[in-house]
Amino acid sequence: MTPGRRSSTFTRLLRHGFTDPSAAERLLDGPELAPVRNDPVLLAALGATADPDLALHGLVRLVEAQPTPTDHRELLDTLIAAKPLRDRLLGVLGASTALTDHLARHPADWQALVTYEPHDLHPGLAEFERGLAEAADPVSLRVAYRRCLLSIAARDVCGTTDVAQTAAELADLASATLRTALAMAQADAPEDAAACRLAVIAMGKCGGHELNYVSDVDVIFVAEATESATEAKALTAATRLASHLMRICSETTVEGSIWPVDANLRPEGRNGPLVRTLSSHLAYYQRWAKTWEFQALLKARPVAGDATLGRAYVDALEPLVWQAAERENFVPDVQKMRRRVIDNIPASEIDRELKLGPGGLRDVEFAVQLLQLVHGRTDQSLRSGTTLDALQALAAGGYVGREDAARLDEAYRFLRAMEHRIQLYRLRRTHLVPVAEEDQRRLGRSLGLRTDPVAELNREWKRHTGVVRRLHEKLFYRPLLDAVAQLAPGEARLSAVAARERLVALGYADPAAALRHLEALASGVTRKAAIQRTLLPVLLGWFADSADPDAGLLNFRKVSDALGKTPWYLRLLRDEGAAAENLARVLSAGRLAPDLLMRAPEAVALLGDGDGTGMPGAGLTPRERTPLEQEILAAVGRAENAEQGVTAARGVRRRELFRTAAADIVGSYGTETRPAEADQGALVDRVGAAVSDLTAATLAGTLRAVVRDGWGDTLPTRFTMIGMGRFGGHELGYGSDADVLFVHEPQDGVPEHEASAAANKVVAEMRRLLQIPSADPPLLIDADLRPEGKSGPLVRTLKAYEAYYRRWSLVWESQALLRAEPVAGDEDLGRRFTELIDPHRYPRHGLAEDAVREIRRLKARMESERLPRGADPKLHTKLGPGGLSDVEWTVQLLQLRHGWELPGLRTTRTREALAAAREAGLLSAEDTEVLDEAWVLATRVRNAVMLVRGRAGDTFPTEPRELAAVGRYLGYGSGHAGDMLDAYRRTTRRARTTVEELFYGDGT
Asked: What DSSP line would sit under 578-601, residue for residue?
């Protein structure tokens, strides 16, 4: 061969898409292809395949495998002379190494691609049955199956059939295979065959007439006795036949296996009998079946065995399928299944997961099935098991927008074509897009992307998954807007009845009111209405994901009415991706956050990237104490009097309470881009720190306002406030009062009675101003932990405190002082108060035994006397067993006994003290974890109750929607309130056992 010719051939091979032209030259110059190496049609045909190198290599293998020179010559002559065969054969060889292997083992099977009569172009079940008819055993069945598969693949890669037709042919081939396998099983056991009538019901993709190249074939078996057998004998015989059928298809032989037959969709799954009678199936579905089982029955189709029995099965169960949407929690159950599927995908695979990942095939299938179940009750045109047919019917009936349906159809077809080509390569069950460039190149070329296959493939793949992600939720809600706003005059629209049906199915308790809200929000030609029409389909989905969709929609209408003419509001929701979802979560999670927002709707800006102050900020990130206090003091400084100053401080407090509540809700619910916060303790700590800092800053501002209004710049006495209880521990909840002590010290030269009068006046005025009825929530100051309680003076001097604690202090007061921390006022006075109380709260050498007994006695009395009448003790977060009080008293007893010698225990924070006790060896790691988990959970429940009900509470609500909302906040899906209560009881029961040992026993 001359160098010039070599160079010319090399170049032509590159131009025809070969990636290894040197190897291709060697194969073309080999003896196998000598008769055709110079024929121009061969190179062109190879270049048209998905992988020319692979096709050429496969062709050489096939030629080598021909048993005689005559066969060799016949193959090559037909290849060159018959373009249809050339395209089909080389197309398969360039797309599938598995089918190439089959042809190498069975070299005559290429002739299955030669004769293509009209019925061969689109064969059905009868043609495939004829193709399998000569199979006499499982091995020959596999050979015949792959011969049929070869013809399906050839039509597919050449474009003779589209993706839907290919999937239908694969389902028909599977049906024919099941029939042949059943016939083999019956021939091997004629007595069993005589004893029963057995029907095979295809489920899943086989039942839906949309099978993949490689997939489990899902089936359900139903049987009845013949006249010659009892029911028990018939079921035993049918079970043997069904098991044998499954083995024939599934077992590995010298020719491999066909596919697994999966019967796990049957009643009770793997735990249930493999075969049941029709009446047994019916009884199960009437009494025990879950929502997903009715969803699965959408695709049920009799495919093998007794046709009359198979039809009877479908006829009996079909009415139950179309009643499924009336079940309680129907839509949440379906959506939860979808979320569970996504949650089970390994993180390393989710971006390559074609079927189950976000924007994948399953999103389309779930959306279509959900709409079928909702509307198929009254519209029989929707009752198709095939996804694309059902989607077309939904569009024709106005249940889905035509444009949306067309875009989903296109995306689904592209993604299924990708799935087919990926599986065809090695005939392996996979839904992962390959990573290797050569694999992506072959995949892209097989889909007709020839210019830059890898880049084009990834671009088209991402485009189509993006379309699915945007549309699959919108499918439910867009037609609702069309129904009320009459947006597309030429398009079929949902009837009022269908619209109400859909809203009820999606969890709306008052569909008529919901439709009124939608009409008010979406009607009209204004910019506001246009933007809201764009947002509402997505917002409605987020509302439906909450415990109270009706409240979410109503609150959104209120906010929109208040802010709809404000340009930045609509721009915020449209342009800042997180803002709309954050708003939806906040508006549907309970009463507190929406109430705070409605009093000043402009705070919705916090849900985006701003911080609500007009400056670039941190959105939902809680603000630090110092900048908060500076803002409040500045507002007080601008006010004309104390009342205006405190009003300004309370306004800041309301805004920051909303920020904290919104951040807590979003962190607890999670968003589409960020999962829910896994560390429950971190959520509790953030809320406690944020509300405590906010309360301290508000008190500091109120103190400044009162002093300035009454005395100018200088009060006659130094004055400070000491946070107590949860306030001192940085653990305030949304509904907590501010527990404080008031301490003062006369300025030099000021008589004590004058200083005391001034201090008392300051306290009285602060309490009055912080409780004046207004749009802002009141801040209640509670000073009951002061010496002598309610009987003692409200304000004392530092010296008076020193005298009292030295002479009269009781052990419970020393315990209360463990949480004391200066929060506002004179810093030096606060520091000296702390130095004064340290010896009392951390007594040298710890507590005497009589003091320990007194604390235990007080705790026992509190448990018996203070629990509200009628409350379930096991669900009371504060006083119930294993609740807040149990954990805190256990920790505080450790602090009283060991704080003098262990600096780490000298903290006002419960969780910090727990960690320090573990570090010091006072608690085991296990006990620490048990106590911490219970304390965090009880605190979360209290926060949830306040967020949901808008008022504080120490026990779970009894109203079902409120209870569900608490569960949603704690991470429990719809219908799982019972699981939440069980988990709470379990957690607190473990904590109580630990408390019994550590607090009442000798553990401390």
From this structure: HHHHHHHHHHTS-SHHHHHHHHSG
Nearby residues of 295 by Cβ (< 8 Å), 6 or more positions away: 324, 334, 337, 369, 370, 373
- The gap from C-alpha 884 to its chain's centroid, in whole angstroms, comes to 31
CA-CA distance, 384 to 366, in Å (whole number)? Answer: 14
Q: How far apart are CA 479 and CA 522, in angstroms?
A: 12
| C-beta separation of 714 from 747 below 8 A | yes
In this predicted structure, the answer to whether residue 119 has a pLDDT above a threshold of 70 is: no
SS3 for 202? Answer: strand
Q: What are the tokens at 666?
A: 């979003």
State the amino acid at position 768 in one-letter form. R
Report yes or no: 882 and 933 within 8 Å, Cβ to Cβ.
Answer: no
Q: Are strands 738-746 and 781-782 parallel, antiparallel or unpaired?
A: parallel
Number of Cβ within a 10 Å radius of residue 812: 14
Q: Report residue 240 as tokens.
A: 């043997």
The answer to whether the CB of 181 falls within 8 A of the CB of 259 is no
Terminal CA-CA length for the chain: 95
Asked if the model's pLDDT at residue 415 lies above 50, the reply is yes
Structure tokens at 278: 């029709």
Phi, psi of 671 (to 5 degrees): -130, 180
Whether residue 502 contacts residue 490, with contact meaning beta carbons closer than 8 Å, is answered with no
Query: How far is it, in rounded angstroms, from Cα 603 to Cα 597?
Result: 6
Tokens standing for residue 259: 């596919």
Residue 824, helix vs strand vs coil: strand
CB atoms within 10 A of CB 513: 14
Helix/strand/coil for 39 = coil
Nearest to 896 by CA among 822, 1004, 809: 1004
What is Dmax (Cα atoms) for the chain?
Answer: 126
Express as a percent the part of the chain with pLDDT over 90. 72
Looking at residue 18, its pLDDT comes to: 93
Residue 773 CB neighbours (<10 A): 6
Query: What is the 8-class DSSP label of residue 679?
Result: -
Q: Which amino acid makes up residue 366?
A: F
Cα angle: 624, vertex 891, 697; to 5 degrees: 20
Burial profile 855-884: b = 16 or more Cβ within 10 angstroms, e = fewer: beeebeeebeeebeeeeeebbbbbbbbbbb
Enter the pTM of the model.
0.74
Sign of the alpha-carbon dihedral angle for 899, 901, 902, 906: positive
3-state secondary structure of 620: coil
List beta partners, residue 635: none
Which tokens in the block code for residue 86?
């050339």
Q: Which two tokens stand for residue 155?
A: 């039509």
| pLDDT single digits (tens) 498-529 | 888 888 878 888 999 999 999 999 888 787 88
Task: Assess contact for 913 and 978: CB atoms under 8 A.
Answer: no
Helix axes of 642-669 and 752-769: crossing angle, nearest 10 degrees: 50
Q: Is there a contact between 777 and 657 (Cβ–Cβ < 8 Å)? A: yes
Cβ–Cβ under 8 Å, residues 833 and 722: yes
Q: In Å, what is the CA distance from 408 to each residue of 373, 387, 475?
A: 19, 11, 10
Answer whether 219's CB lies under 8 Å from 203's CB.
yes
And the tokens for 669?
A: 């619910």
Distance CA 478, CA 486 (A): 11
Closest by CA to 698, choosing from 638, 640, 769, 757, is: 769
CA angle 337, 547, 589 (to 5 degrees): 120
Nearest to 742 by CA among 804, 825, 815: 825
| Residue 2: pLDDT over 50 | no
Integer-rounded Cα Rg, in Å, for the chain is 37
* Cβ count near 375 (within 10 Å): 25
Query: CA-CA distance, 475 to 375, in Å (whole number)?
Result: 13
Measured between alpha carbons, how far is 583 from 185 in angstroms, rounded to an integer? 61
